[in-house]
Amino acid sequence: MSELRMQDLTLVGRLKGDPIPMTNGECYFKIDAGANRPVPCFCNEKTATNMIKYLKDGDEISIEGKLHMVQFKSEKQHTLLVFARHISYGRKNRSLVSGT
Question: Which terms are listed as keywords in the entry (predicted)?
Fold first, then answer.
């Protein structure tokens, strides 16, 4: 097992919306991990290609990544983002699989 640092985390939950491809090849997505709000996440190009191809809204995933705080220049506002290093796919959204 790799050394854990304070900003390392693991989240398990369901995708909130389909993964969104970005112009730089990365992918933006949100995961509903049982918190008050969905957690915004990014992943690299290779992972993004597979996510867009195989995952849809409501599918279960597990991500390991790093927590980053980002400040927007136009506003004096900070937000936390997760940069995913590893993503494991879980069960598919049942309503999409069964067609109901």
Answer: DNA-binding
Q: How far apart are CA 31 and CA 11, in angstroms?
A: 8
- Residue 84: which of 34, 48, 37, 38 has the closest Cα? 48
36 phi, psi to nearest 5 deg? -65, -35
Residue 3 pairs in a beta bridge with: none
Residue pLDDT, tens place only, 36-74? 888 899 998 888 888 999 999 999 999 999 988 877 777
Give the tokens for residue 73.
């220049």
* Residue that is written with structure tokens 């927007």 in the block: 72
Q: Which two tokens stand for residue 77?
A: 């506002």
> Tokens 């369901």, residue?
14
What the chain holds in terms of domains, given with CATH numbers, is 8-93 (2.40.50.140)
